[in-house]
Amino acid sequence: MAARRISSLLSRSLPLISSDGKKSYFGRRIYRYSTAAALEDPIKPPVTVEYDKLLINGRFVDAASGKTFKTLDPRTGEVIAHVAEGDAEDINRAVAAAREAFDVGPWPKMTAYERSKIMFRFADLVEKHNDEIAALESWDNGKPYEQSANIEIPKVVRIFRYYAGWADKIHGLTIPADGPHHVQTLHEPIGVAGQIVPWNFPLLLFAWKVGPALACGNTIVLKTAEQTPLSALLVSKLFHEAGLPPGVLNVVSGFGPTVGAALCSHMNVDKVAFTGSTETGKVIVELAAKSNLKPVTLELGGKSPFIVCEDADVDKAVELAHSALFFNQGQCCCAGSRTYVHEKVYDEFVEKAKARAMKRTVGDPFKSGTEQGPQIDAVQFKKILRYIRSGTESGANLEAGGDKLGTKGYYIQPTVFSNVKDDMLIAKEEIFGPVQSILKFKDLDEVIRRANNTQYGLAAGVFTQNLDTANTLMRALRAGTVWINCYDVFDAAIPFGGYKMSGNGREKGEYGLKNYLQVKAIVTTLKNPAWL
Ligand SMILES: NC(=O)c1ccc[n+]([C@@H]2O[C@H](COP(=O)([O-])OP(=O)(O)OC[C@H]3O[C@@H](n4cnc5c(N)ncnc54)[C@H](O)[C@@H]3O)[C@@H](O)[C@H]2O)c1
């Protein structure tokens, strides 16, 4: 769809939620958001759903059972589409297609350059259809359209170009060994990769998984999240238009305990890559171990610290900490969900963080200027509201927000708690919503100990102008990524993954290729000595 048409639809006048209401509550003044009249009349998304079946062996097909499930609009809870619901039988069909495309070919037998050309063509097609794909992503997920169109889909394009560039640069080594032997290694694709993605970044995580797997010559059966099945079907169609042979990329929509479990348990799947909760990650590893011991890479949950040191420029730190937490409705595995602030700047920081949250524009994702849309679904919505209640009940100060917005869909007020203690649930567990928890600290040793005192280790943020402080923290923090004076920098070349129970393996960058390669050692006897 033409970009012009989409932007004209988006500029329809619709008021955003204003945030200037105030109300006395338990003797304290807290801020309240005004009634969300604007949310009652959702903007019609500028896209239609064309693909709602399973994609197996290059064709869109119904589920073997004929069943479908509903995918819902998070703005209203209304049905967007009925999508074919796969189960174990469909996984069998998809794995058979992927197996054939791997064992017989053509994918791993094509030259790397031919594979890379198809991936580059696909990236061009995604770029061409950017606005249409972004609209579908935002409709199914609830994230602001401008975020999808200007950040996420361009990043999908970048990831595919990055890995297309790697396809013909993957090679092994020659190794000097004792004795009369010529030793070399081949870096070979693993085979059929099972990939399971969550709903918070449906296409970006599709790209993180599909890009490196295809560059290395693997074939794929991918399971989308049941909340967001649509965008992967659309782009997979484009991949076939770009020349991807049938069977190389199969997409099976459906639920975790059926489709997901069948994929992880399948004896003909050679590897599983999973992104989702730590709880489900444990199930995945167990299913893989109990079947054929396939290797598993995991990108799981987090409770990442964002540390504001005493020398920080408070205004900049407030803005960065705000986006570190609230980006994508707070639904980020690496959200900076424990904001540690030095006592010298704490009071000023809390006041400004509250004011910033109050200014956050919550509204229809298709309205230009919206920073925050609805949460993904009723389950997450209720869970977040329970955490907010728990924060208040455990004695944290509710500085802003604290409630839902509107009567339709899953909108939640940007919420800020101060005076949060490490042992409160809101400081320990992953909320996955727009709830900022601010904690006070006195010195570096203390904040290092507290920041590391978690089962997670996905990411950390540090805000300081002092080089020694930055150097100390970047080494002491036990996390897969440490962002210094920045946050959420997701370049295609930068590896991403977790320490501890945030997962294992790294996605993106050169490291991401390792998940999809195995090493074969070739040893050839030489005449002794070889040069005679
Ligand atoms: N580390 C990362 O890169 C990263 C990125 C995004 C999200 N996450 C994490 O994902 C979680 C939110 O996503 P969610 O609620 O959809 O997680 P989830 O674990 O419930 O679901 C993720 C995916 O796993 C599937 N699944 C569920 N049960 C399964 C089973 N028994 N067998 C196989 N597959 C199964 C789901 O259908 C979905 O596709 C958060 O904890 C978040 O931190 C991590």
Automatic annotation (TrEMBL):
Protein's name according to its UniProt entry: Aldehyde dehydrogenase domain-containing protein
Residue ranges of every copy of the Aldehyde dehydrogenase domain listed in the record: 60-522
Catalytic residues of the enzyme: E299
Biological processes, Gene Ontology terms: carboxylic acid metabolic process
GO cellular component: mitochondrion
CDD domains: ALDH_F2BC
Gene Ontology MF annotations: aldehyde dehydrogenase (NAD+) activity
Family to which this protein belongs: Belongs to the aldehyde dehydrogenase family.
Lineage top rank: taxon: Eukaryota
Pfam families in alphabetical order: Aldedh
Keyword hit for Oxidoreductase: yes
PANTHER family for the chain: ALDEHYDE DEHYDROGENASE-RELATED
Sorted UniProt keywords: NAD, Oxidoreductase
NAD found in the keyword field: yes
